Amino acid sequence: PCNIGTSKRNGDDELITLVAECAGVDVALSSDVLGDSRSKSGDFASPDETAAVSHTVGFAADEATAIEAIAQFADPDLAACYSSSVTTLLNELIGTQPATTDPAAATTLGTVLAERRDTSAFGSDDEAIGYSVVIPITSDGQTTEQYIDVIFVRSGRVLSQVAFNGTDAPFPEDALAALVATVIERSASIA
Predict the structure, then answer these.
(1) What is the pLDDT of residues 81-111, one digit of tens each?
(2) Mean pLDDT of 154-179
(3) How many CA within 13 A on the CB side of residue 99?
């Protein structure tokens, strides 16, 4: 995998802010809804570190507020905004790398593609919304594709985000489906 350094920005938070500003959604709604009730796991990675998953969960004050919060992720502009926001942040990271006179050694970002993915197996739009993203990065003449699938799920007043990452291949779909089903089942038991 390509290591393109660290950013002056706070990665996930900055990405959320950029996407929200671009799509015109209220990022504060999700933050205010979850407040101090949010908890994020670390990344759980495969032994070869080519696949990883993380989970964030939190509670809204009530189910109506949780439905309002997840509805924002259905915004039709969100995929395009995610692509442009990821491109902005990664180009900033690439710009922090030491200059090289060898064009083959330079790190470059290809076209970031994001699209809404089918989450109907996990419930209706007020229960599950997901996106798939492909990020091609070339460094030292080698191109690596990063695949990201983000699934937002709601069960009652419980909101979760499950992020799946794969290097050069998407996270295995059967494992993704099983893990999201587990998140939904456990969320329902505490909703």
Answers:
(1) 989 999 998 888 887 766 666 766 678 899 9
(2) 93
(3) 1
Q: Which two tokens stand for residue 175?
A: 């494992």
| Residue 82, φ and ψ in degrees, nearest 5 | -65, -45
Strand partners, 128: 153
Residue 28 host element (H or E): helix 27-34
Q: Tell me: the pLDDT tens digits for 73-87?
A: 888 888 999 899 999
CB atoms within 10 A of CB 106: 15
Report how far apart, in Å, the C-alpha atoms of 29 and of each of 17, 26, 126, 161 are.
12, 5, 15, 15
How big is the CA angle at 168 (ends 9 and 39), to the nearest 5 degrees?
45
Question: What average pLDDT does the structure give for the chain?
Answer: 83
- What CA–CA distance (Å, rounded) separates 34 from 65? 10
Q: How far apart are CA 126 and CA 72, in angstroms?
A: 10
